[in-house]
Amino acid sequence: MSFALQSMALPLITALLLLFIHRRAGSIVIITSLLSLAAALAAMYQVHLYGVQQMTLGGWQTPLGIRFQLTPVNSLLLVFTALVHSLVALYAAYSRHSATNTTDFWPLALLLHSSLAALWLSSDLFNWYVTLELLGLAAVAMVTLSGPKAYRPALHYLLLSLVASLSYLLGVALMYGRYGVLDIALLTEVTQVDATTQTALILMTLGLMIKAAVWPFHLWLPSAHANAPTAVSALLSAVVVKGPIYILWLIWTEVAPPELAQSIGFYLALVGIAALIWGGWCAIRTPYLKVLVAYSTVAQLGYATLTLGLLLHWQQKQLLIALWLFVIAHGLAKVSMFLVAGEMQATLGSNRVTALKGATQTMPVAMFAFAVAGGSIIGLPPSGGFVAKWTLLQPILASPLHWPWAIGILLGTFASAVYVFRAVVLSFNRADPIAPDFSPDRFSHWLAMLPALMAWLMASVSAQLIRFLGGVA
Q: Which of 197, 361, 394, 459 is deepest in the core (most CB within 10 A)?
């Protein structure tokens, strides 16, 4: 457990130091992120050796104390968060187009990292509220780093985030009034099917769905992600929207009585299918590249919602593995796609998809990275996206009664193939391409390739990942 705490504390301590140290901030953040990654890997190895671990801060026992828990799922998420922050910090420090070196990006990115790590480790409804607030405030502040064009999307994001926080907090208050405890393990033993519990769970679910931008509460996401600096867009899409999904999973699998979870699961699965189709349709129609990638996030969150819904409705633990494989595969692919989109936009001087015409000739590495990441988003074998989708499809295809869900997944896959190939096909059109007015930043292009390749390499370690996550299934 000590390694997990180090992974969480290192970014927080460094963020405080950066308030006084302004030189070499980028190098300091890269070193901190790599140290946090090493600590997270050690924590993951501890879970592999010794199983689930728990700790109460300051020695105070629940319900007064704060309990942290380290499981296979959140140890993997700790590693994933530190890895994404390391990649994005490298991009922000060394890309000519990152536009974050002279801003407050560095302490905010570290605060975001630490808040996420605390969220993964917490096991208490109120602690989650605190971490969600820290996460939301840091994320909104980072969106504004783009300047005046981002103020309106950031305000929109902030207002909806506040509404979500009020909804979640009201649900927490109802749970505390009904049971007198907020610790997840204690609530698991006492929750009952009654009107107060149902109301509290629905309020918390609505708040979390708004914060995660799950359809139809996604309205803040496309403009916020598209107008943020490229490094911020990558962080928001890859890791920030996954925090509320994690809490949603634990609330409905640990706190809610099984009969309630089973009934809500069907509706969550329907929401997931709608997100797949609507997000994909909007990504196909938009003329702007970063908006396309942002709507792709809305669609891909549909897979997570669908998988969670079916997990609750069918009570099949195998779907838990599919859920977190989706989260990791999508996060890696989305880091790559946002870095490529930002580089293309800055180099070509246009934010439109049509500017990609001839990009395979002018910026082949970046365009190849986009195509590789897009292949995982579509679910082409043997990518991480394919492994996640196949794990989801197995219980669906096992019974003809479940096949209608497969049709929804097929429509979502078709939509993602259309918006990815729309960009790729344009890039091969070498008739009258838009020529860049200076040489592309090749280091950034190769850096964008790295997470895309990792998304595909997930397939080579999928058996180990499934066995590791199976420790809670």
A: 197
Range of the domain at 461: 258-472
Using a cut of 0.90, tell me whether the model's pTM lies above it.
yes
- Report the pLDDT value the prediction gives residue 434, as an integer from 0 to 100: 63
pLDDT at 473: 45
Distance of CA 384 to CAs 27, 327, 409, Å? Answer: 31, 10, 16
Count of structural domains within the chain: 1
DSSP assignment letter at 60: P
pLDDT tens per residue, range 143-165? 999 888 889 999 999 999 999 99
Residue 171 in domain = no
- pLDDT value at 44 more than 60: yes
Q: Is 203 inside any structural domain? A: no
- Give burial (CB, 10 Å; 0-12/13-18/19+) of 256: buried
By CB atoms closer than 10 A (0-12, 13-18, 19+), residue 464 is: exposed
Contact 143, 184 (CB under 8 A): no
Residue 161 lies in a domain: no
- Distance between CA atoms of 329 and 386, rounded to whole angstroms? 9
